[in-house]
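Morning, I've got a small favour to ask if you have a moment. It would help a lot if you went through both lines with me. I owe you a coffee for this, so here goes:
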Amino acid sequence: MSILISTINELVVILGLRKHPMTKDDHHKDPTLLSIGSMFETGRIKKMYTLAELYPTKIANSLGINYGRYMAKLSHPDKFTLGEIVRLAKLLNIEPDMITKVIYCEIK
């Protein structure tokens, strides 16, 4: 069974659906959050406010900030702290620079 999962994992990377192979830790992560990470990887997230429609309460709670503050930061992404960006990246299983690139494009 693990050989099949490994092969599927490699195929997903080869097809460009994910940039990094999934690890054992990924199997314990929320699939909805991993799908949001994939949206960053494929360039579908162009503005941080797009996340407002994608499980905002779950993400805000996971980041340790209240819902209202999270929504305000999505509207003004330059207000995200470096720590929040790193935690969001870890939550979504992506590199923090994917998030910072989106933020930079919004504020330049």
Summary: The chain has a mean pLDDT of 85. Residues 10 and 103 are 30 Å apart (CA to CA). The first helix runs from residue 2 to 14.
